[in-house]
Specification:
two-stranded antiparallel ribbon, 6 strands, 3 helices, 126 residues, alpha+beta, 4-stranded mixed sheet
Length: 126
């Protein structure tokens, strides 16, 4: 998956239609739009690092996504979370979220793990 994004301060304001992830941690989606699953998984990818980002950048941050592209032959919406997680780790000195993926040959499918989070999008405690 090819993610293009930039980190922006929040002092100039938050663009309309941005998503608040945690406190002053925001996700801005591309003007061209995204599929809803991609947007949800990108937000989840930011949330995996939100507490660490809040500590590192107490004044806040806007992660503005310019584009997210993936060949349809390789498409898995969950990969958007891993792409965001990886991008954040390239940009900032934050501890690993523990997110990852392996291929389960016996089952013939990818197995995603989310560090401390057992059930993405659940309101249940971790």
């Amino acid at each position: 998956m090819d993610l293009r994004a930039e980190a922006c301060g929040t002092e100039a304001g938050i663009p309309a239609h941005s998503v608040r992830i945690h406190r002053n941690i925001w996700l801005g989606l591309p003007a061209s739009g995204l599929y809803w699953k991609d947007a949800a998984w990108l937000a989840f990818g930011v949330s995996l690092n939100a507490h660490a980002l809040s500590e590192l950048l107490p004044d806040g941050i806007l992660v503005q996504v310019a584009s997210l592209e993936c060949p349809l032959s390789d498409y898995r919406s969950e990969a958007a979370a891993l792409a965001m997680d990886g991008w954040l780790h390239q940009q900032f000195a934050v501890r690993s979220s523990g997110a990852g993926v392996t291929y389960d040959l016996a089952q013939g499918r990818f197995a995603f793990t989310w560090g401390q989070t057992a059930q993405p999008f659940s309101d249940a405690p971790r």
